[in-house]
Amino acid sequence: MTNGGRRARPLATTGRKQSAMDLSIVIPVLNESGNVVPLLDEVLAALRPVGIEFEVIFVDDGSDDDTAAKLIARQGDTPELRLVRHASRYGQSMGVRSGVLAARGRWIGTLDGDRQNDPADLPAMWAAANGPEAPGLIAGERIKRNDNWQKRYASRFANWLRQKLLHDGVKDTGCGLKMFRRDLFLEFPHFDHMHRYLPALARRHGARVLPVPVRHRAREEGTSKYGTLDRALVGATDLFGVWWLIRRSRFPIRLRDDGGAR
């Protein structure tokens, strides 16, 4: 992935050995100084009682405030915390990808860095990930949007159009709260803004997608990094690109050595 001819250079501030664990929470952030520490504490409070091995990876996408400094200050007393830093800004999708590449978890959970997603929903998503339905991806669907009316109606139209073209079975693909298998994500083609199409890409690979209702909170600190118009313009191009990609995809039925399908 490049931006103006430059390659993203994620710089990890931790050097721990890469070994498998249960769950990695990946949170891309840009100038979220007022949100990162409270969000970290909420994630820890939600997941520590679950009794799983997890890590929390913040990906700082070239912030020019003290977002990274606040996280670095917490690393000494928070063994679950890791920080990946981009040398400049490359966008949310590259932030997610950098976090996944650095992750040690079999499963990945993603959250937006503005604290509008509620980490208290993570344990239920983890239970669903290990439930009888065996999903490859769990997609949060916000049951009540705490955004202004322009964002709500723009999102409603975008979701309607996406469903008409992609049939991904998810009503709210823009929700940042998701959980998916790391190995599945690494099979996806990478492109800018791909984070909005993870359910469609998962279904393209034959994985089960499970929507679950989640909470949504009003932003209390910082400012939104997206405008309604710029989101719509890039979204139209991406939508038709993903539609083309799905129509051109063919995946073989793999056979075991004994001749049985799997």
TrEMBL record:
GO terms for molecular function: undecaprenyl-phosphate 4-deoxy-4-formamido-L-arabinose transferase activity. Coiled coil: none annotated. Keywords: Cell membrane, Glycosyltransferase, Lipopolysaccharide biosynthesis, Membrane, Transferase, Transmembrane, Transmembrane helix. Pfam families: Glycos_transf_2. Residues 24-185 form the Glycosyltransferase 2-like domain. GO terms for cellular component: plasma membrane. The keyword Magnesium does not apply. This is Glycosyltransferase 2-like domain-containing protein.
